[in-house]
């Protein structure tokens, strides 16, 4: 089969194209996002109304919140962000699995005793709890089976307070599938009828680390975001993966051929807003990602953050573009042309004024500023406007 490149003019946003996708979302484009955290979830909820074929490659390196509890107990990759994206893309129409959706989004109360919470978990395992009793078989049996694996492996001092049932089901499935994430993510997505594809970029029990220009080494995603610890006070010089929160040498891991194929064949690649290093750059660290992006003939779009991101300390807007290209070329090759890695920077018109337009043009990158916020969305992008803009590139 021969491959050809075809150029066309763009209307941004393109009302005709958007209307077509809205009528037939099952035939919508395969837009691929490198993402993590919850920043993209509101956009994902809107996106599924226009395309049911989006692809979300997500970092499993989170080390804070409820993911940290599970990682500590079972030595597993982080699953909290994967679960939240699966839920954001779940079919919430009358055709969806509303009983399963309610179960998977349920959290144990934070103010109950551990004995009470353990009793509630046992009720779920036995099928007596009302949330799980409403789920029809055979799905109920499948869910109870995964929960049983979690329960049997759960340490005696495991803290269930505030725990997400969806996370516990994913953890049980991970243990039940030879400590592999992809099979249980696939099952979870079928149970909630996820309208898109969600995958961990790599199925690995690794942690994120950064070296600051001050010389300090920070290990663990939760120590970088400024949410659980004080924000960093020096610019990030280097981002890498390591095996333990105790630190250590950088490690390399390669993305699977299947995921490389998804990247290469996506109708568009988006570097979306979110924590710059721990959500976006983290997904670009595995070997094969940059090369696969370079092999894709389709548009590559960077949507920079609007709100304050502590991980971008000391970086100008143009320098985020430079950092993105630097990490992509680390795998794709230092001589890889920019147009193979990035074509457009799309942002709100007010934020666009903060970029050096001439510098981007000299690199071969087009800057597009548009009305992408609303009163309700500030200081972030309006999900509807952002989705309509992105889909106009496909």
UniProtKB/TrEMBL annotation:
Gene3D superfamilies (UniProt xref): CofD-like domains
Superkingdom of the organism of origin: Bacteria
Protein name listed in UniProt: Gluconeogenesis factor
InterPro entries hit by this protein: CofD, CofD-like_dom_sf, CofD-rel_GAK
Pfam family, one: CofD
Record organism: Pseudovibrio japonicus
């Amino acid at each position: 089969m021969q491959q050809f490149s075809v150029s066309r003019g763009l209307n941004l946003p393109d009302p005709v194209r958007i209307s077509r996708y809205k009528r037939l979302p099952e035939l919508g484009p395969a837009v691929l996002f490198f993402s993590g955290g919850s920043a993209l979830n509101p956009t994902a909820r809107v996106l599924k109304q226009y395309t049911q074929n989006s692809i979300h490659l997500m970092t499993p390196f989170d080390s804070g919140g409820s993911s940290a509890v599970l990682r500590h107990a079972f030595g597993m990759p982080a699953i909290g962000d994967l679960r939240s994206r699966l839920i954001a893309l779940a079919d919430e129409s009358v055709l969806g699995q509303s009983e399963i959706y309610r179960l998977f989004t349920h959290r144990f109360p934070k103010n109950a005793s551990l004995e009470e919470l353990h009793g509630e978990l046992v009720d779920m395992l036995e099928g007596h709890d009302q949330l799980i009793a409403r789920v029809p078989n055979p799905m109920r049996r499948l869910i109870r089976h995964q929960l049983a694996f979690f329960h049997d492996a759960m340490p005696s001092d495991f803290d269930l307070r505030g725990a997400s049932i969806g996370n516990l089901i994913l953890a049980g499935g991970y243990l039940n599938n030879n400590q592999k994430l992809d099979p249980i993510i696939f099952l979870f997505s079928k149970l909630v009828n996820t309208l898109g594809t969600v995958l961990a970029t790599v199925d690995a029990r690794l942690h994120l680390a950064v070296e600051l220009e001050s010389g300090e080494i920070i290990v663990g995603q939760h120590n970088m975001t400024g949410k659980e610890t004080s924000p960093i006070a020096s610019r990030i010089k280097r981002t890498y993966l390591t095996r333990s929160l105790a630190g250590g040498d950088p490690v390399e891991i390669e993305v699977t051929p299947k995921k490389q194929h998804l990247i290469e064949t996506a109708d568009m690649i988006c570097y979306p807003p979110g924590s710059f290093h721990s959500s976006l750059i983290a997904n670009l660290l595995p070997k094969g990602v940059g090369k696969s992006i370079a092999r894709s003939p389709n548009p590559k779009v960077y949507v920079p953050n609007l709100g304050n991101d502590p991980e971008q300390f000391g970086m100008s807007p143009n320098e985020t573009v430079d950092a993105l290209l630097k990490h992509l070329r680390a795998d794709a090759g230092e001589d890889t042309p920019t147009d193979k890695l990035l074509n457009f920077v799309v942002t709100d018109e007010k934020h666009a004024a903060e970029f050096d337009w001439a510098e981007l043009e000299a690199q071969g990158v087009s800057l597009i500023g548009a009305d992408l916020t609303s009163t309700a969305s500030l200081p972030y992008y309006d999900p509807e406007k952002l989705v309509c803009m992105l889909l106009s590139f496909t």
